[in-house]
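To illustrate the input format used throughout this study, we show a single complete record. The first block contains the structure-token representation of the backbone; no residue identities are included at this stage. The design step must infer an amino acid for every position from geometry alone.
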């Protein structure tokens, strides 16, 4: 008997070792060797980190694509940025997300181990349901905040539920729960869901046990109070400035114009009930049978990553095809999904019978709340990218707990053949999920996303940025990548080559009838740096005739100053700073010219304005790093020329990064 027990123990330990090694190995490989910056709005999430690094300030919802998110996840990325390396930042964010994903899986195993202490193998099953869930494998290496939120929300739920089922609940435990929930709220707005689930569970218990109502109310107050104490300053900031504590970027032009053009553009109630069998052979979310299938699209995104990236034109059209691996995962996902649904029903039945109510109640409420919130969001944002499964990743813990409950029920049937078949099936699904998530195995390997270019550029790693943009400049739609390649050359001191590339892009743009004043303005900057001041002036005059863009006005002022037209230069720079007072470079150029003209008081005032603007977080368009759109694929979209005694130069990201400290010393 002892020999059999030792053999089972050895098998259990070996299974855990294999499961850990596989989950860690896949994530490490994807994070450290996979293509860079492919993920849902990856460019916008990393732009947030760069905004924090360059301005030492939290952005606002109306300034960029993902800038509405709370800052905690991006502050962690900001720590990585201090290493001064693009690869450390991008790979580090992938490792961070992967670690959060694994942490969530281990937390799920911990909770199931406490719920079913006499069946240790269920903890391993719970770990597997999360660690090898394709949604977790795909989203872990993404630079966004989804897995960080999921980990914090899961930690809060597990901590709370363990206290409930062990009967060791106390105010200090509730304070820890509140702290974890506060951190979740500082990571993503739907961190409110576990807070609502926990407080609703306590409220439901108060209704069931009136004699405990007072104590339960105190516990609710402690949890909510600590959570708000940690997160309220951020939400108050939004309320005071934008009039909405959970202000999002969707109402603003930079997002609303994009969403307006995304299909289907409307929702009907039928969209929540329609599921077509065609989804098993065609997983494209822009196919007619999925555009109006809310839950069908979400299911596919959970199991087959049918989005791969949220940019239709550059990712889906080029990358998505009817692939056997996608179809395979679509079919294989039916088994775990069915187990989770059955386990939810069994768990609710358990709770009604008074069993495991401390665990089931908050998890069931979280599940219902998250699904309802998702359905509501799909209604108000009726576009296919709004159906990303990442919005429901917070259900990783309920998914694991409920699926293992169904496995437990099947094991109770004491059918060795059924148990073996189920175990082998789940292991096979996990293996397939690993294979499809490894670049070049289940899906074709991509090169680094063009969004990696701006990150290399930000850290001054021009050769790496040139490598990224050089590849994409050969694409059928090369304009934005020619611009970016020219910007890299300009920043690297190759002014003649930068001018040539900008001229080529400008010529293509005009031949296509595209009105692109900033593209012409970029060419003018390259001409000025290459010593062709008259041509630069002509280009700027052409664009500014009836279109007084402040950046181009500021640059024309510099060109005029270099050509000896001091009065015209001062006029342009005054007009530019009046139109866009946040332009630190323009204030410095104005101060330089005023100093040279003997206008000392005016020069001091201009330098003071430059210092004030450099040392506070910008509002509106943040010159230097730009909105998320400017950092999406390109660099140098709105160059500003810097004037000093030695001539003119570009205001590069390093200038904005150091401007506050440098100007304070002057």
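Output of the design step:
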């Amino acid at each position: 008997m002892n020999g059999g027990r030792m053999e089972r123990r050895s098998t259990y330990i070996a299974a855990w070792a294999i499961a850990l090694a596989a989950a860690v190995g896949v994530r490490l490989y994807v994070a450290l060797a996979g293509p860079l910056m492919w993920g849902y709005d990856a460019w916008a999430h990393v732009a947030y980190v760069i905004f924090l690094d360059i301005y030492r300030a939290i952005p606002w919802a109306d300034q960029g694509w993902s800038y509405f998110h709370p800052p905690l996840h991006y502050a962690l990325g900001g720590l990585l940025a201090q290493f001064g390396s693009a690869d450390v930042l991008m790979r580090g964010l992938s490792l961070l997300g992967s670690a959060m994903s694994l942490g969530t899986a281990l937390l799920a195993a911990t909770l199931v181990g406490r719920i079913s202490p006499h069946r240790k193998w269920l903890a391993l099953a719970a770990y597997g349901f999360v660690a090898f869930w394709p949604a977790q494998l795909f989203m872990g290496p993404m630079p966004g905040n989804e897995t960080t939120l999921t980990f914090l929300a899961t930690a809060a739920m597990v901590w709370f539920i363990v206290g409930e089922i062990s009967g060791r609940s106390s105010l200090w435990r509730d304070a820890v729960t509140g702290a974890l929930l506060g951190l979740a709220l500082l990571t993503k707005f739907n961190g409110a869901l576990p807070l609502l689930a926990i407080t609703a569970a306590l409220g439901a218990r108060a209704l069931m046990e009136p004699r405990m109502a007072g104590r339960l109310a105190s516990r609710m107050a402690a949890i909510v109070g600590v959570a708000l104490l940690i997160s309220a300053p951020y939400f108050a900031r939004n309320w005071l400035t934008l009039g909405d504590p959970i202000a999002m970027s969707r109402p603003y032009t930079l997002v609303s114009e994009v969403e307006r053009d995304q299909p289907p553009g409307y929702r009907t109630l039928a969209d929540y009930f329609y599921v077509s069998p065609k989804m098993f052979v065609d997983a494209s979310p822009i196919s007619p049978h999925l555009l109006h299938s809310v839950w069908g699209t979400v299911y596919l995104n959970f199991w087959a990553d049918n989005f791969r990236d949220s940019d239709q034109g550059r990712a889906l059209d080029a990358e998505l095809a009817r692939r056997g691996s996608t179809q395979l995962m679509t079919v294989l996902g039916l088994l775990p999904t069915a187990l989770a649904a059955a386990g939810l029903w069994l768990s609710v039945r358990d709770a009604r019978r008074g069993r495991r109510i401390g665990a089931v109640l908050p998890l069931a409420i979280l599940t219902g709340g998250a699904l309802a919130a998702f359905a509501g969001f799909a209604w108000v944002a009726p576009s296919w990218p709004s159906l990303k499964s990442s919005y429901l990743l917070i259900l990783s813990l309920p998914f694991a707990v409920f699926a293992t409950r169904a496995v437990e029920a099947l094991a109770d049937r004491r059918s060795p053949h059924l148990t073996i078949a189920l175990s082998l099936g789940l292991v096979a699904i996990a293996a397939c999920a690993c294979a499809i998530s490894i670049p070049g195995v289940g899906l074709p390997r991509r090169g680094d996303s063009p969004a990696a270019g701006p990150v290399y550029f930000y850290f001054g790693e021009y050769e790496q940025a040139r490598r990224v943009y050089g590849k994409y400049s050969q694409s059928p739609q090369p304009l934005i990548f020619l611009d970016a390649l020219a910007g890299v050359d300009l920043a690297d001191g190759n002014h003649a080559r930068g001018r040539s590339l900008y001229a080529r892009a400008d010529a293509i743009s005009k031949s296509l009838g595209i009105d692109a004043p900033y593209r012409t303005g970029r060419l003018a900057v390259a001409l000025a740096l290459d010593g062709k001041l008259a041509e630069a002036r002509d280009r700027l005059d052409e664009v500014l005739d009836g279109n007084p863009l402040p950046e181009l006005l500021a640059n024309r002022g510099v060109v005029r100053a270099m050509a000896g037209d001091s009065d015209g230069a001062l006029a342009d720079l005054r007009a530019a700073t009046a139109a866009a007072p946040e332009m630190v470079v323009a204030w410095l150029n104005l101060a330089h010219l005023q100093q040279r003209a003997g206008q000392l008081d005016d020069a001091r005032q201009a330098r003071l304005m430059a210092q004030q603007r450099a040392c506070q977080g910008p509002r509106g368009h943040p010159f230097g790093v730009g909105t998320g759109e400017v950092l999406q694929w390109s660099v140098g979209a709105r160059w500003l020329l810097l004037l000093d005694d030695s001539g003119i130069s570009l205001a590069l990201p390093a200038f904005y990064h150091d401007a506050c400290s440098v100007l304070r010393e002057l």
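Structural context for interpreting the output: The chain has 30 helices and two strands. The beta strands are 641-644, 647-650.
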